[in-house]
Amino acid sequence: MPINHKITNPDIILNVDLGTVLLLNTGGAVKSVNEKTGHVVLSALDVSADPLGSAETVKTQLENQIKPVQILAEVNQLNLTKKADQSELEKTQIKVEENRLTLLNKADLTAISLLTTLIDTKANQVYVQEQIANLVNGDQSIINAIQEISTALKDNENLLEALDYTVANRVRFDIANQALTVLQKFNARTNINAEESGTAAILIAQITVQSIGAATAAQGLKANTALQSGDVAPVALSGLFSSLTGQNKIFDVVHSAYVEGTNVAISASDTLAQMLGKLQAQIKANSSANKPVNWIDVKTIATFNARVSLPNTTLKIANINGEMWMKGMISLSSQITANTDPIFAIGNKDWFVTTAVSTANVGLTSCFDLYGTSLSIYNFGFVQAPAINAMRFYCTQNTPSNGSYNFVPFQVGTLINPAVGLV
Question: What CATH number labels 296-414?
Answer without folding.
Answer: 2.60.40.2460
